[in-house]
DNA sequence: GCCAACCTACCTAGTGGTAGGTAAAATAGG
DNA sequence: CCTATTTTACCTACCACTAGGTAGGTTGGC
């Protein structure tokens, strides 16, 4: 892994645990084993780092969703796969890390515009993907939405719940609590 | 309003917009119109401030929920009242402020233990209250949950969604988006 | 020799927090 | 009632430390 990648990786992990305002170049320098100034060589400003981080995170996230839904036999299974990507974030960090963009969404008030744009795009693309999964599930009969509820609105609701659920679960209850949440959703959405 | 209250009020508003790590004693001092040191007189450490803030916020929130549900004719109306308390947070701040404890939940990684305990209690009490509302609604026939879904789990899911929904809505879409989310929930939970 | 990738050494602007002082209000005691 | 003492609620001036950021030098591989 290149130094540049190591910096991005360290920053991502730190932000997922402590937030952008709780993470500093000094923290990264200690984790990566280089000086603070060397980070500025790769990312002149913190904002440069954040913007690139969000972009990369979005790609990795969507790719991971694609992987987790590729072999699913129906829409309900795809939905479970989508949930699994979120659960993995929490699980792969001893229940300490939440979604990078969920974290940054809570800090929009102290973020630069291009980072915020990146976070918005993450939300848009993710919800769009999720809405596509609902399309599939309703089409193949494995999922059923309340009548009058658009797939877009349902996806919005589910996605908010996942982001919020990560926060709740990290606060108390950890991975089991988060899995209970996703199970509840599947119970509500699966066709009988 | 006493200086002490003004400090708490200013801190609350700042945190709801920028987070605890994005708020400083200096910010408060400017808003309230006193010196930084005077804030330390009232709240020796930042942690003292945060802990008291969370406690007060929890009380006010629960009281507000009580007000918004008192005159509701059934469980579904009570649920709508609960949602309204969240919407009011966003609405009363030009769509810039989210729930104080939702904000702090995202910052648990850089918070002191007693503040975290307070945030946990906020979540527990709120979800408990929400579960009580679902009890009422299911009992009086105005709400219907998917079978096999406990009221506790449903409340957990709804609450996560509200906290996440505030973040999403602040990011993009504002109050209208948040209201669409709560409407979707009512559509899913209202008995036909 | 060049240039990328680092380094040391520094800067300015803030951070939470402390030391010590002061004016005014409350509260005694004779 | 009037003075003496304490308490409240602030202040100025500082502390040590950390923040993001910069200038310029060193090193090693092509």
- Kindly name the structural category of chain A: mainly alpha
- Separation, N- and C-terminal Cα atoms of chain A: 48 Å
**What is the CA-atom radius of gyration of chain A, in angstroms?**
18 Å
Oligomer: homodimer
Low-confidence stretches of chain A: none
How many β strands of chain A by DSSP?
Answer: 0
Q: What would the principal axes of the Cα set say about the shape of chain A?
A: elongated
In N-to-C order, the SSE pattern of chain A is: HHHHHHHHH
Largest sheet of chain A at a glance?
none
Describe the structure.
2 copies of one chain form a homodimer. Chain A is mainly α. In chain A, 75% of the residues lie in helices and 0% in strands. The first copy, chain A, is built from 9 helices and no strands. Chain A is elongated, with a radius of gyration of 18 Å. Chain A starts with a helix and ends with a helix. The relative contact order of chain A is 0.13. The interface between A and B is large, with 48 and 49 residues. The first copy, chain A, binds a DNA duplex (30 and 30 nucleotides) through helix 3.
């Amino acid at each position: 892994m290149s130094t540049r990648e190591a910096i991005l990786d360290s920053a991502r992990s730190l932000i997922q645990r402590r937030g952008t305002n709780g993470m500093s170049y000094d923290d990264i320098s200690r984790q990566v084993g280089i000086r603070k100034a060397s980070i500025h060589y790769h990312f002149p400003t913190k904002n440069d780092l954040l913007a690139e981080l969000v972009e990369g995170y979005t790609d990795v996230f969507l790719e991971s969703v694609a992987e987790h839904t590729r072999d699913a036999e129906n829409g309900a299974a795809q939905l479970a796969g989508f949930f699994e990507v979120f659960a993995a974030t929490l699980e792969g960090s001893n229940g300490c890390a939440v979604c990078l963009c969920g974290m940054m969404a809570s800090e929009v008030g102290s973020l630069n515009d291009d980072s915020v744009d990146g976070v918005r795009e993450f939300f848009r693309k993710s919800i769009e993907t999720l809405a596509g999964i609902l399309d599939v599930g309703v089409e193949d009969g494995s999922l059923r939405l309340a009548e009058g509820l658009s797939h877009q609105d349902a996806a919005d609701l589910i996605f908010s719940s996942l982001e919020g659920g990560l926060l709740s679960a990290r606060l108390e209850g950890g991975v089991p609590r988060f899995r209970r949440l996703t199970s509840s959703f599947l119970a509500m959405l699966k066709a009988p």
